[in-house]
Amino acid sequence: MENQKNYRITTHQNELAVRIVGNSQADLFAASGFALFDVMADIDKIEATERLSLEVEGSDRDDLMVNWIRELLYLYQGSGYLLKEFKINEVKDTLVKAEVAGEKIDPDRHEIKQEIAAVAFHKSRMQKTGNQWIAQVIFEI
């Protein structure tokens, strides 16, 4: 599935509240990864040259979503990865397995528009509403 901007941002002081929508739980995880890197950088300038397999666990859905975003953010902060493709292979309420693709940051080609310091657990949540999945994720900036 082609990622598009299935999210909306609200800014408040040092936080960005991101509301993400997906047709399935897998869509929601893919869209949340896309939203994170689309907010940080020009995602069109990122090339999917390196693939990484991820397995992330959480105690419940909300915890899993926060841990997923934290893992993606860690790949950026710790290893300099900018990601643009998020293929969710398996998702349960406490586990997500995915393959992500992107490349290491190249200062000549990539401009960081918005640094994100962390994900705020206390306000982030995920739920199924009708036939849609919705997540509210708070990025601390």
Written overview of the protein:
This protein is an alpha+beta fold. It has one domain (25-140): Archease domain (Archease, Possible Chaperone, Chain: A, domain 1, 3-Layer(bab) Sandwich). Helix content is 25%, strand content 45%. It has a four-stranded antiparallel beta sheet with strand order 1-2-7-6. α1 (25-40) packs parallel to α2 (61-79). The N and C termini lie far apart (29 Å).
Summarize this structure as a short list of keywords or feature phrases.
141 residues; 7 strands; Archease, Possible Chaperone, Chain: A, domain 1; 25% helix; single chain; 4-stranded antiparallel beta sheet; 2 helices; globular; alpha+beta; 3-stranded antiparallel beta sheet
**CATH fold-level label:** Archease, Possible Chaperone, Chain: A, domain 1
- H and E order: EEHEHEEEE
Name of the CATH superfamily: Archease domain
Could you describe the largest sheet, including whether it forms a barrel?
4 strands, antiparallel
What CATH first level would be assigned? Answer: Alpha Beta
**Spatial sequence of strands, sheet with the most strands:** 1-2-7-6
Range of helix content: 10-25%
What's the β-strand tally? 7
CATH architecture: 3-Layer(bab) Sandwich
Shape: globular
What class, by secondary structure content?
A: alpha+beta
Rg over CA atoms: 14 Å
Number of domains: 1
- How far apart lie the N and C ends? 29 Å
